[in-house]
Design the sequence.
């Protein structure tokens, strides 16, 4: 799922190196297609000295946002040697891919998939600390959808529900932030994923305009940074908050499929069937899916009841239309296999 041929896109590198034209954190190289307004957006959002949390020997961060141009920017953030300015600490290096909508959808509109592809290249070549002023476009290879489950799925639904409400959130103490983000994205219809700006292991900064900030550890300065922002900070060592009522049916369905190991079904539902579903339609989508799951053990009376609840022609959008058609097709298959009652003599 999602695997495709190479995606060619623009790229940019944001870091601190000494060059004849200056030093300090800035875009040090980019491919010719990166526009001036996109460079301004990237500069405003990119991490600089001390912005990457050093919570492991080789920390890695992620930055993903939609630029004002409409293109999607995903950055792989790592350390690249000692900071050369004498301030101490490590140089923060961000390698970014800029994708149009078609290119982003080749990765399932999931920043984790793009981040993985950029990371594969960086691990092969290392950070480009002596780049030419003009880079060639970047060729990335989408891989299959990563369905590796996290150790605990309990913190997937609450952040996803916040994003459905168009609210921002900082989540601390995430042991597997990339896996958690991957499944948070896969819990949302594809079109809704495309509106999410997110970062992993980067210090909170309101100028980045992130909707979701994931941190593996805590940050003693976080409460001060969030003052006046009306952005909650939740810790993963506590129980997750309750899901708002409008989304309970949707996450109840996903939760059951989680427990049943139906991870491919979740990814297929959100990435193929319900790509353009809006937040206010998810309860109806969930109801159709719940009833469809009852068909295998249904008798004639229940089959009539279920198909009656979801009559052909009653859908309110493409996703519901597809699911109702699938439900009726499956119901007919089940009905055909029911034991035939003997006719009265």
Sequence:
């Amino acid at each position: 799922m999602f695997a495709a041929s190479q995606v060619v896109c623009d790229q940019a590198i944001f870091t601190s190196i000494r060059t004849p034209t200056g030093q300090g954190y800035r875009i040090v190289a980019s491919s010719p297609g990166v526009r001036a307004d996109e460079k301004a957006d990237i500069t405003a959002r990119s991490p600089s000295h001390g912005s990457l949390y050093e919570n492991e020997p080789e920390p890695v961060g992620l930055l993903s946002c939609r630029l004002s141009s409409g293109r999607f920017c995903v950055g792989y953030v790592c350390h690249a040697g000692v900071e050369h300015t004498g301030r101490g600490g490590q140089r923060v290096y961000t390698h970014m891919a800029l994708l149009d909508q078609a290119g982003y959808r080749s990765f399932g509109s999931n920043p984790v998939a793009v981040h993985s592809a950029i990371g594969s290249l960086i691990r092969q070549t290392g950070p480009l600390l002596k780049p030419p002023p003009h880079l060639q476009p970047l060729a990335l290879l989408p891989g299959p959808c990563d369905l590796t489950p996290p150790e605990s799925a309990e913190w997937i639904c609450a952040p996803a529900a916040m994003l459905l409400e168009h609210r921002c959130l900082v989540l601390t103490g995430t042991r597997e932030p990339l896996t958690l983000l991957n499944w948070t994205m896969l819990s949302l219809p594809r079109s809704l994923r495309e509106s999410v700006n997110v970062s992993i292991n980067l210090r909170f900064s309101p100028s980045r305009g992130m909707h979701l900030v994931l941190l593996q550890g805590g940050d003693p300065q976080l409460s001060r940074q969030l003052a006046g922002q009306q952005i909650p900070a939740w810790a993963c060592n506590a129980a997750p908050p309750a899901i708002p009522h409008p989304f309970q049916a949707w996450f109840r369905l996903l939760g059951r499929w989680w427990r049943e190991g139906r991870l491919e079904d979740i990814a297929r539902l959100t990435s193929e069937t319900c790509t353009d579903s809006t937040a206010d339609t998810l309860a109806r989508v969930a109801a159709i899916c719940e009833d469809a799951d009852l068909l295998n053990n249904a008798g004639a009376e229940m089959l009539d009841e279920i198909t009656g609840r979801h009559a052909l022609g009653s859908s309110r959008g493409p996703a519901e239309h597809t699911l109702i058609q699938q439900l009726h097709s499956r119901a007919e298959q089940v009905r055909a296999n029911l034991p035939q009652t003997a006719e009265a003599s």
The CA atoms of residues 40 and 173 lie 32 Å apart. The mean pLDDT is 92. The radius of gyration is 23 Å.
